[in-house]
Write a structure and sequence with these properties.
Strand order of the largest sheet: 1-5-6-11-10-9-7-8
CATH class of the largest domain: Alpha Beta
Number of strands: 16
Helix content: 25-40%
Distance between the termini: 53 Å
Structural class: alpha+beta
Number of helices: 15
CATH topology of the largest domain: BirA Bifunctional Protein, domain 2
Radius of gyration: 27 Å
């Protein structure tokens, strides 16, 4: 019989790892909701054409990272590699692509066929927000505020890099210039890569290939192709960030990896994940909804890799709950009764009613290893007296003798 094992890049999650992931997810949701973003859930499976039309057929996602399959009717489907395109498709499908401003968030699994490495899995959790229907710089800055607060709440140090890439006309003019510029280096670039760059030469700006970096460093910046209005908009965004004391660095080579971006693009970086140091990124995509068949509506947003943040976040595993141990069958039955009352009295309280047969010392060690702040061990003496010793496992509080009523009041 073939050995049962996980698929490469799709590990089972348990223990401290899943606790860290859950902590990041809950923090994201808390911050998203504090800005009045509402949850939106889309299917894991989409038509492959959705991503070909949105992220661009020269992107790494389409070229080599798609999990593709055909259903029984021969439809070309794929596991979603990112969240924005699916949410935009859902807006159009459900008639939500009107002019009213909408704010949505999502948290869920995504799939990319790439080489697994630190912070990179083939199945991963992504969280993101989309602010639909507002073309003002205030919308751009609001999503940056959300991103900054998420990372602050997770106590993850980061640096913000921003760039501005103009509108579609500006981007096309810049592409034409880069095609001409790259032609003089045709003999220095591997043929397959060269023709791929000709299709979308902007990708040369943030290439990781050292030879491409060296070639592109003398090219004109995209800012040379801005209209006066676009120059002013970028300056206004920077002024607003300055007034909010949000620190940033302008990176003229930052373009992000997806074709739908226009206007402001950004990344938050952290150096604890090696060369792949971007932990959160996004930008404006004012043409995507119309390009996919909806109304012409501006939009902006960002996404973050939950798993990536979970690898560098320091979680607080102190659940401040109570561990109820017991020394025989009668005390175990009473512990279950007491635990039921405590949970009914306070549904958010974490109560462990120990079901094993370990001795007193081993139960205390288990309570400590689980991260509980308080422990009660129930035996015949406690059952007869109705008084229980509430033992603190921290050094900041003393043990207390308490009745059942007093316990219920304390943990209400």
């Amino acid at each position: 019989m073939k050995e049962l094992k996980t698929i490469r890049g799709m590990p089972d999650l348990y223990g401290l790892e899943v606790q860290a992931i859950s902590f990041v997810e809950k923090t994201c949701e808390k911050v998203f909701r504090s800005f009045n973003f509402k949850e939106f859930r889309t299917p894991i499976l989409e038509n492959k054409s959705l991503f070909e039309r949105s992220v661009g057929d020269t992107s790494d996602i389409i070229q080599k990272e798609m999990y593709e399959l055909q259903d029984r009717k021969g439809e070309n489907l794929c596991l979603r590699p990112e969240g924005t395109a699916g949410l935009v498709r859902a807006l159009i499908t459900n008639g939500l692509d009107d002019l009213e401003i909408k704010k949505y968030f999502y948290i869920g699994p995504m799939f990319r066929y790439e080489r697994p490495q630190k912070g990179r899995k083939r199945q991963f959790v992504q969280a993101g927000i989309e602010l639909i229907g507002d073309d003002s710089i205030n919308a751009d800055v609001e999503i940056l505020q959300v991103a900054k607060i998420v990372l602050e709440q997770l106590s993850i140090p980061s640096e913000l890099e921003i760039n501005f890439i103009g509108d579609i006309e500006c981007i096309e003019n810049f592409r034409d210039y880069l095609r001409d510029y790259l032609q003089q280096y045709k003999d220095q670039i591997e043929e397959k890569l060269y023709f791929r760059l000709l299709r979308n030469p902007i990708r040369a700006l943030d290439s990781k290939d050292e030879k491409i970096k060296d070639i592109i460093k003398d090219a004109r910046p995209i800012s040379d192709f801005f209209t006066e209005e676009q120059k002013t908009r970028f300056e206004d965004i920077k002024s607003l960030l300055d007034s909010l004391e949000i620190n940033y660095k302008v990176n003229p080579n930052l373009v992000r990896g997806l074709d739908y971006y226009t206007g402001l693009v950004f990344e938050f970086t952290n150096n604890n994940l090696g060369a792949q140091n971007a932990i959160l990124g996004g930008g404006r995509y004012d043409n995507l909804i119309a390009d996919l068949g909806g109304n012409k509506i501006p939009a902006t947003g960002f996404a973050l890799g939950v798993d990536r943040l979970a690898e560098i976040v320091v979680t607080n595993l102190d659940n401040s709950g109570i561990f109820l141990g017991s020394l025989d069958s009668k005390s175990k039955a009473y512990a279950q009764k007491l635990g039921f009352k405590l949970r009914s009295n306070n549904p958010t309280l974490n109560v462990e009613t120990y079901l094993g047969n370990a001795n007193l010392n081993k139960q205390l060690k288990k309570a400590d290893s689980f991260g509980f702040k308080f422990v009660i061990i129930i035996g015949q003496e406690e059952l007869n007296s109705g008084v229980f010793k509430l033992k603190s496992l921290s050094n900041t509080a003393e043990d207390q003798d308490m009745t059942e009523k007093e316990l219920l009041e304390k943990f209400s």
